[in-house]
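User: Can you help me understand a structure? I only have the sequence.
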Amino acid sequence: MSKYKKSPDLSEKSTEPICSDKKLTAVLSENCTAVRALMNNSSDIIIKYFSVGGHSMASITCEGMTDTAKLADLIYRPLFSSPPQIANGAEFMSEVALTMPIAEEQKQVYDVDALCLAVMSGFAVLLCDGANFGLAIGIQGYSHRSIDEPSTHINLRASREGFIEVVRTNVAMVRRRMKSPTFKTVMMTVGDRSNTDVCLCYLTDKADEHTVASVTDKLRNIPLNTIVSSEYLQSYLEPEETSLFSQIKTTERPDVFVSKLYEGRVGVIVDGTPFAIILPCLLAENFVTMDDYTHKPYFSAFMRTIRFLAFIIAAILPGLYVALCNFHPEMLRTALLFNIYSSIQTTAYPVFGECIIMYILYEIMREAGLRLPKSVGHAVSIVGGLVIGEISVSAGLMSAPVVLIIAATGLCSFAVPDLYESCMIMRLAFILAGGVFGLFGITVAGAVLFFRICSKNAYGVPYTAPFAPINIISIMRDTFCRASWRKLSRSDMTVGQLAGYKKSREERTSGNEQDK
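Assistant: Let's start by predicting it. Here is the structure, written out as tokens:
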């Protein structure tokens, strides 16, 4: 059992009382006073008293969280037009909940904590004198951003819809694309203070039950008070928090989210952020885009190969250049060696120092252009291209080959945006290794990185699958190459069918039993 107190789940339609320290009583004034006390008499909590059918009642709402038109049409109008003719307050409220078509989403609450959570979630809560429970009615009406094109993972021929900050709208977009009875959603609240709505999504006939149970258990036991973004959950859902490569994929595209669910993944949608979580994630998936499935297979295979090469160039090229210039100049062509030598003679710093300085300056320019307002963001590119680039070479502070290599690696890293953070750290590590130990350092750093990647395993799925353990069918089906839709439609492929998955799951299960 977790030591952290979990908030009630308002998504379930259960009418069982929720355990709490402060229960609602049959006295209306005491209940309203308790709500005011728990909310510290907050000005945005609105309590409206009225009388219906001889019963004193009150509606509790949060300003800006409910739709006032629905409040009048779905609650006040039915109550005042034809109220049940019952003298007992508890029976009157039960009759209202059972027979009156007030709203589609409603739930009975029995304690003050659940009542306040419902109000802060956009529900309107009805209380009646003589009834020791309240009726929470879903008439959410808070403002939110309209559905727009995703700002990341831009595609040419794919969908233009992207997730927004409202979890239920996001779930509806997924359901519109996955009209299958096996698509299941589990809504829960995470965060002791924020009580953030988190929706777990998966296909019951595709996802592995061990993975679903593991993710559900981790979500229910996250020891965080406030969750305002999906990134807050990643460190708790990932097997290794300090790993260089993330085993969790984030996306703001519903079409990508649905396609991953169909492959047996588990998705997590967090209220308040347009980025959904997909797990487990494979290394090869970072080089795949939705446009690959709209183009011809041969073109998709060519573009995936380009992305693999761009990632390798972005990570290794600066360190390789430093190693060759400092330790192995004989490996360079004579004409190229003379050009590099002449440029080095006119600069004030050695090649190793130049690469470090230009690397830091490039990252500063990138960060400044990212954080500046769009109206002045273009000034960063002008300053970076003219002042730091051309003028630094003309002044003899930097050599032209170093500026060219750092700029080229920067462009290559943007070809694989999901791995930009990892590529940035790898680039610095290879520069240091090549500058200190030469090609030997590059080789050792590459070997350590390679074995480290191969050892990663998330929820029983090898991170390097289908390359290690190798699965030729999966590689030729949809990795480097992509088969045509006629061949892809002949059989389904899930992460549970990858080589090494069953063995890893058995090891994980035995390891959990040993820990217990």
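Now, to help you interpret it: Residues 109 and 288 are 47 Å apart (CA to CA). The first helix runs from residue 28 to 38. Let me know which part you'd like to focus on.
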